[in-house]
Amino acid sequence: MMHASRTDITRRRLVSQALTGAISDPALVVDRMLALQAQDLRWAKWAVAVRAPGSTSAGIDALIDSGAVVRSWPMRGTLHLVPSQDLAWLLELSTPRLWAGAATRRRELGLDEAIIEHARTVAVDALSGGRELSRADFQALLQRHGINVDGQRCYHLIWHLAQSGTLCWGRQLDSQQMLVLLADWVPVSRRLQRDEALGEYLLRYLTGHGPAPLTDFAWWSQVTMADAKIALGVAREHLDVLDVDGVAHLLPSSADVGPLGRAAAGRGPTAVLALPGFDEYLLGYRDRSFAIEPENFTRVVPGKNGIFLPILVRGGRIAGTWRRDWQAKAITVRPDPFAAPSPAFASSADRALHEYARFLGRPVHVLPAPPAVPAAT
Hints:
By secondary structure, the protein is of the alpha+beta class. The chain has helices spanning 6-16, 26-33, 41-49, 57-65, 87-101, 103-109, 113-127, 135-144, 153-163, 182-185, 194-209, 214-221, 225-235, 280-283, 297-300, 343-360; strands at residues 2-3, 36-37, 69-75, 78-83, 167-173, 176-181, 239-244, 247-252, 272-275, 311-314, 317-326, 331-337, 364-366. GO terms for molecular function: DNA binding.
């Protein structure tokens, strides 16, 4: 076991998270990360593109619309973008626990097994053969077949049918994704035995997020610690271990555990990165102290209400947030650093936000940073 500093971990995570500009193909980014949180699809697209410099919003749209990347609920009951061939085995691992955990909510909504299976039959009959429906049209379809969709019932029916492998989100049409049958949208899927799947889950997590302790993997994947230990047993021969203050941090043995390679232009150790809201760089770990000081956490997650603002990252540390005002005729972005920015920081943040503007391919007005406000004590 090698010893490493906390700074070593943050530097290596920038590489693992594909934030040093070494990947140009957005499909390879998704494959490396395995899953990127995507309840906000606009942010999820930027999460992919910022890791593949030069990617455009139109290019990420094409990737999603091709079916190479699929949006569904592979874990934690939260929408993610995942490589399409990996969704089936991820669902097989996550569905039993999530299904059991949703039992109380099903009872509250009056959704018993008969209603869910009725909805499944309706969905399969309507969507077979590559057909698609918007969420509103699917809701109307269920109503026509006598299924009550009041309140949250439609959302939970869609979630249950997706979680059990019947539905997923398909191509985008008029700024919304269409519902499709998973079997039609992803006709070829990888199938893994359970222990094999657990081992791959851990290895793929560490490839896109490591070094990290096993507890971070268990939090991120929501597998039990017992299953996390099975995963470690399966993947152990492919892993190295770094000791950080007495805590074992795992990483794939194929990783460069010596001096890290040079970053691409604009992605060096002093460069500012403008990452999206809900980005894996912060969400991907239970212990977030490697990326942000505790006193600044509520500046990224105001009120600790589950809404993660877009972040400015410099040298692996979160140094501020940024705002995006999206209107029909204009998009405005503005950095909001935690401390008064130096000229070099301001210039690098401006470059990062213009990179986001180029990704959108639309006019974007980049505003200067406001006066810094001290963190609440």
